[in-house]
Design brief:
Helices cover 50% and strands 12% of the residues. With 376 residues, it is of the alpha+beta class. Strands 1-2-3 form a three-stranded antiparallel beta sheet. The protein is elongated and about 125 Å long.
């Protein structure tokens, strides 16, 4: 009985005629089971041959599929191994930097840059692929690229890799200086710990890494003094006279260990602040708030101090700079006009004290009344 040469089924449909070169015709069939089409003569005369050929083709096809699958598996395995090796190298790199005394903020940035390069398909153990990955980042500024190059240069040095770093010239930008009211808005709307950090940075100009190293023994609650001993970037130790408001905010934090802000990492607190800042900016419809970072408050403090004192040495000591060249950038940042200030008066010492603690600066005396002002 006629059956399908492909699957052996006997459930067949007639599927027209096949016309041969000699003018004769043969019946064509369609298998209802597998859909294979064949002619009657082909089925009867060459069934065994075709079946054998199809079996051979099937074996070859399967072999090709297996080979391709094996190659794909091997390739995926190789890529996975490279990624795992790179991840281990990054962890090892971070630990080496830690042993060298590199600041946590610098380590965090370097690791972030290396992870980003890897996510772009670069092989951290192949310097040429790093050059390609950096060059293809069209959204990166020259300054960003120079920072990434510096990060990989350090990675290559610690891992014995030789490469000629590409030359990207950093283009310094004028720091964004927010209004004091905008900073105060963030302080008011952020969580307890983040708002305390913001107030601290606003009043002292510390780096975020320095703030997170503060210990309870560094806070003089009686005299409102904060002492910074563990500095970053070879900065000088310094002492700050702070407001009663800040001291109260610090005193309300939980005292779980010897550090004021606990064992929080810079990356962790930055992520928390970024999310809170985004919500506040959206709620108040003020996109300028999104430009405020922890380091922005250092620029704000330096600018305000120079505006009040016109003493660049004072600003240099306040920021802990070793070189005055780093401080000079703040001398021409903002030109303040008189209408950019709130004014207030004090008739006695207690009122004057409250205004000073609120951030007002003394201007002059008129008719036995002291005039104060504070930037809007």
């Amino acid at each position: 009985m006629l059956c399908c040469s492909e699957c052996g089924s006997k459930l067949l449909y007639r599927d027209g005629l096949r016309y041969l070169s000699d003018g004769s015709t043969v019946q064509r069939w369609l298998c209802r089971n597998c859909g294979f089409r064949f002619s009657e003569r082909q089925n009867s005369n060459t069934m065994s041959d075709n079946k054998g050929k199809r079996q051979i083709c099937a074996v070859i096809k399967e072999a090709k599929n297996l080979t391709t699958a094996k190659e794909t598996t091997n390739l995926a395995g190789e890529i996975g191994k490279q990624q795992q090796d790179a991840k281990g190298k990054i962890i090892e790199f971070a630990w080496k930097l830690k042993r060298e005394g590199t600041s946590e903020a610098t380590i965090s940035n370097y690791v972030r840059f290396l992870n980003h390069l890897q996510s772009k398909g670069a092989n951290l153990l192949d310097p040429d692929s790093i050059k390609d990955a950096i060059a293809l980042q069209e959204t990166w500024s020259s300054s960003t690229k120079s920072l990434v190059v510096a990060a990989y240069q350090k990675f290559a040095s610690l891992n014995g890799l030789t490469w000629k770093p590409p030359k990207y010239k950093a283009n310094p930008k004028v720091p964004f200086i927010p209004l004091e009211s905008e900073i105060d808005t963030l302080i008011a709307y952020c969580g307890k710990k983040v708002s305390t950090i913001l107030q601290l940075l606003k009043e002292t100009g510390m780096r975020i890494g320095e703030a997170l190293k503060l210990k309870w023994i560094d806070i003089d609650f009686e005299h409102n003094i904060v002492t910074l001993n563990e500095t970053e970037k070879s900065g000088k130790p310094r002492m700050f006279k702070v407001s009663a408001k800040l001291i109260t905010m610090i005193n309300r934090l939980p005292k779980k260990n010897d550090k004021v802000f606990g064992n929080r990492l810079v990356s962790s607190i930055v992520s928390e602040f970024t999310e809170q800042r985004r919500r506040v900016a959206h709620k108040l419809q003020n996109p300028r708030l999104l430009q405020i970072h922890f380091h922005t408050l250092r620029h704000f403090k330096a600018t305000m101090e120079y505006h009040k004192t016109k003493d660049i040495i004072h600003v240099k000591e306040l920021l802990g700079h070793r070189s005055i060249e780093n401080t000079m950038r703040y001398t021409q940042l903002v030109s303040f006009e008189s209408d950019e200030f709130h004014s207030a008066t004090a008739k006695n010492i207690e009122e004057a004290k409250q205004l000073i603690e609120a951030g007002f600066e003394y201007v002059c005396d008129i008719e036995n009344v002291k005039l104060f002002r504070k930037r809007k």
